Amino acid sequence: MAIQKWSDDIIVVELADDPQFSEELANVMDAVEGKPSDVVLNFSAVSFINSSNIAKLLRLRKQMISSGKRLVLCDVNTQAWGVFLVTGLDKIFEFINDISTALASLRIAGDEEKEVGD
User: What is the greatest pairwise CA distance in the chain?
Assistant: First the structure.
């Protein structure tokens, strides 16, 4: 299964090239609509990104921002990274090198929010 609930408030998605890429992003959008969660998108198996993929990523980003949650992209290979650079999306999305660091970052931020709320 490509979408995994890592904790109560974090979803990890193992993306692949199309058509799975599009299907998984649609599933993530549905999942976070009902119960907002932080999302980590693992790009390690993605070899290319097309304009349709970019549009879906931007819609997911907008949905995440409106729910006050974070969207983190990790393990982006050189070809996909080139697309993000050329389009200027490297300044729009949050990138972290690997999935472990992404999860740690989200967990630390979540713990800090809980401390402030107490």
Answer: 44
Contacts of 109 (CB under 8 A, 6+ apart): 70
pTM: 0.89
Residue 32: count of CB within 10 angstroms of its CB: 19
Tell me which residue has tokens 């931020």: 109
Domains and CATH numbers, the chain: 3-117 (3.30.750.24)
pLDDT tens-digit series, residues 25-74: 999 999 888 788 999 999 999 998 999 999 999 999 999 999 999 999 99
Interior CA angle at 19 toward 22 and 43, to 5°?
65
- Rounded Cα–Cα distance for residues 75 and 98 (Å): 5
